[in-house]
Amino acid sequence: MSSTPAPLALVNVTLEYPDGDGTVRALDAVDLSVRGGQLVSLVGPSGSGKSSLLAVAATLVRPTHGLVLIDGTDATGLGDKDLAVLRREKVGLIFQQPNLLASLSAAEQLVIGDHLRGRSAKAAWAKAAEMLDVVGLAPSADKRPHQLSGGQRQRVNIARALMGEPKVLLVDEPTAALDHERSESIVRLLRRVTDEFRVATVMVTHDTEFVPLTNAVATMRDGRLAAPVPAAGTEALSPLSAP
Fold it and tell me: Is 237 within the bounds of a domain?
């Protein structure tokens, strides 16, 4: 068995928010480990803690207790500056709304800000072309958001998240604004890039119809995470989480 650490691991993570004279426990002793090449669907009712888990895994919110390990590094022990570097270099975020800049082409959306990773302009443009090809948008590199369909805009969003060659990909409701056909194509694309780039991917979704396209599904209720089980039609997986 390989000793390589899982790209994403949450260990006994608890998250509490102040609420009047008391506290609200958004996450309750959550354990989750996702290997490279695995796409895990995260499902559960509204208010169950899915968004909180994604925010903690993304290092956007510090947990009250527990560890958040990104590619073997304990993010909870880092200062804000080092945490921002870890997030930029190791974590890709895909939100429900692509939030693309109206004046920029698809390629420009990927290149802007890439200098923070230390790439030259030439290398950034080459990487953008590569990622747009990966998501099937090479012919649309010069198009602006209003010239793209909703599914194409989400593909730009995915390509942008892959620019930094992340170890972890965190996806929040990527199909919420799409029709059935485009939704299925986006989930299939996420499965393909997860496998191709060996990233550890967690996808929050209410659209359980497409869960069988992922490797495993984990259910949240009242801040607790049930042990993930293989999604229908996929190979059996080793345990990803403790109940």
Answer: no
- What are the Cα distances from residue 57, in Å, to 27, 69, 134, 166? 12, 8, 25, 13
Looking up residue 55, the CATH number of its domain turns out to be 3.40.50.300
The whole domain housing 63 covers 8-230
**Total tally of structural domains belonging to the chain:** 1
Structural domain contains residue 239: no
- Decide the pairing of beta strands 216-221 and 229-230: antiparallel
Per-residue pLDDT of the chain (243 residues; tens, 9 = 90+): 456 789 999 999 999 988 888 899 999 999 999 999 999 999 999 999 999 999 999 999 999 999 999 999 999 999 999 999 999 999 999 988 888 999 999 999 999 978 778 888 999 999 999 999 999 999 999 999 999 999 999 999 999 999 999 999 999 999 988 899 999 999 999 999 999 999 999 999 988 889 999 999 999 999 999 877 777 644 433 333 332
